[in-house]
């Protein structure tokens, strides 16, 4: 069937997918706010956890990696002490990639996608309606922010920067917390880096984590030399998930879901450890209750020995991650969502990233349930985008 391919989302996965679709000569429309998650949902001053080599968007031709961008444009601010990429540089790179390869991104929201006899009917926030032969959902983290139940119960109107409980995705900067008592909940890179940025901004910050202590990873080249290097680190397990994403799909779904959770699980980057020095950590505690009011938040936490403690803060910043659940993709019609086979909240995908609704593809985080943890990272675009584009080209061409 010939027709338009639509990409929903203009982050690393959407931009890369659209570039590959274009290279197949397809008519493509791509909707979304370019690099929005990086501009609006992550704190200014953040350094990427992934090294430069693992922070490139896949393009259909050579010359469009982060390092190419730096070389070609002369945008060469110093990287972090250990070669880390500042978020501001990564955003400029993403916008340059857009300008070079997908200049006609339309900054509008897709408000609904419905199935019709031959393909899909979409409505946009601009009021326009259109038809598509194939749809690629590349909406990334949008809608998947997760808050532990006691925190969610304390803010019935939802977390927000203006209330006393927020999710880390609601902050594009943390400098306004100077002088305030902040509890950061979580033990991953987002929690530990937010705590460092808060400390450096003059906030009184504590980290509350379920783990026995704050954990930090090792340098990408730290493993034994007989282990293989990958863009995400040196080890056989990483080599397997980075280079064999196609085979990952063939594992039983319970194994896949366990690996997606565990491989590259919550821990801070090795280079963050020194800057984290001096941040108090309340470890081994679960939040079992929370009360939020004008004056701040009281958290009830329970330790592994069953004893409860209470903790006061002006603000609780929940860096508690993202959980894929398809009901959050409310722009997909209930009929479409009902037609999607799932495993643990993730859509079940074929080897071409197609879902059980013909013509509807998913890439990025929702594809991690099928192809593994590499889909949670920018470097996963090099596996996903060429495959997905080749399949959509067959459908639309
Ligand atoms: C704090 C933090 C730090 C991270 N650091 C790293 C790192 O160092 N390295 C790394 O590889 N990964 C990192 N990640 C993961 C990273 O977010 C993903 O790898 C990457 O952003 C995924 O890209 P994406 O295109 O799938 O989604 P996103 O970047 O989330 O982009 C989603 C896009 O979808 C659009 N959109 C959503 N809904 C609609 C709609 N209905 N209509 C139209 N458009 C829509 C948005 O406007 C946006 O353009 C980090 C994540 C977080 C939270």
From TrEMBL:
Keyword Oxidoreductase found: yes
Q: Which UniProt keywords apply?
A: Oxidoreductase
Q: Which Pfam families match?
A: Pyr_redox_2
The record places domain FAD/NAD(P)-binding at 5-213
**InterPro entries, per this entry?**
Auxin_biosynth/cation_transpt, FAD/NAD-bd_sf, FAD/NAD-binding_dom
Q: Which domain of life is it from?
A: Bacteria
Q: Which residues form a coiled coil?
A: none
Task: Answer yes or no on keyword Signal.
Answer: no
The name of this protein is: FAD/NAD(P)-binding domain-containing protein
Annotated organism of origin: Streptomyces rectiviolaceus
